[in-house]
Design a protein that fits this description.
CATH class of the largest domain: Alpha Beta
Largest sheet: 6 strands, mixed
Radius of gyration: 21 Å
Shape: elongated
Order of helices and strands: HHEEEEHEHEEEHEHEHEEHHH
Structural class: alpha/beta
CATH superfamily of the largest domain: Periplasmic binding protein-like II
């Protein structure tokens, strides 16, 4: 009898896990709190402004999502902002310490083994910010050079893959975060820094002398950003995607984009297609 009960528990375990995970909306409604993890170092997507408040493209999107969830749940919500790093951003959601993560996180199949993702919120590619003195015009030109990249990111995977595929004898130097990557580039410890192109452009403006650096045209990998969500919770994912569809169908997306990237900035053709595909009808 004991063995029979144990066998039933084993068979039921996946369903129990799914049942536990599939109540995010109820938790939010009952607590009247929406916990949002956000990156503090992913300018212009997610960062802290001068007053140490969350700001950026992804943060603004999530503020609008919070407003939509209030309407969908018919209750006023308090937003709790949870600072995150590139190392713990998905773990915060997986462990339930945050209901979602808003930053510059690339949706990948391997990451979908532990978390879920919303509809895409941005499309970028992995690129290279180099010291002009290195004389490189492409990844191949960095043979014999050192390239920094944040460890454990999709950028590192893309860089490792392309270095091997193109037979480039460059040294990949893992760093903890983007600030460390830029610091090593400025110090001359490395010759290039790999990362999402739009983020590299933002970081280039933080160096002492931007004229010493340039962004190469290489696109090492596609980076589709999405909001990290709990796995096995289709109801919550639907609620978030419904909010994104509302945003993509309204002038709000133009306002959010220009606030993050500048009043004269325009979405790329690929990004416009992404907005259109994410604007699901009811």
């Amino acid at each position: 009898m004991i063995r029979f009960v144990a066998a039933l528990l084993v068979l039921a375990a996946p369903a129990l896990v799914q049942a536990q995970a599939a109540d995010t909306l109820k938790k939010i409604r009952d607590s009247k709190t929406l916990a949002i993890a956000y990156r503090t170092d992913a300018l212009p997507f997610s960062h802290q402004d001068a007053s140490k408040q969350p700001a950026g493209y992804s943060v603004d999107l999530c503020k609008r999502i919070a407003a939509s969830l209030e309407q969908q749940l018919n209750t006023k919500l308090q937003v709790k902002w949870v600072p995150a790093t590139s190392q713990n951003r998905m773990e915060l959601v997986r462990k339930g310490e945050a209901h979602m993560e808003c930053g510059s996180t690339t949706a990948t199949l391997s990451r979908m083994e532990t978390v879920d993702f919303s509809s895409p919120v941005f499309v970028d590619s992995t690129g290279l910010l180099v010291r002009k003195s290195a004389g490189a015009k492409s990844l191949a030109g960095l043979a014999g050079k050192k390239i920094a990249v944040v460890s454990g990111t999709t950028n590192q995977k893309a860089l490792d893959r392309e270095v091997k595929r193109q037979l480039v004898s460059a040294t990949v130097v893992p760093v903890k975060n983007r600030d460390e990557g830029i610091a090593t580039l400025e110090a001359g410890t490395v010759d290039a820094f790999a990362g999402d192109k739009i983020l590299l452009l933002g970081l280039a403006g933080k160096v002492k002398d931007p004229s010493l650096y340039e962004l190469l045209s290489d696109d090492l990998a596609l980076e589709p950003y999405a909001i990290v969500l709990p796995r096995n919770d289709s109801s919550f994912r639907l609620a978030v995607n419904r909010a994104l569809a509302q945003i993509y169908q309204s002038p709000a997306i133009e306002e959010i984009f220009r606030r993050a990237f500048g009043p004269d900035a325009k979405p790329s053709p690929g990004l416009l297609v992404m907005y259109g595909l994410g604007a699901y009808p009811e």
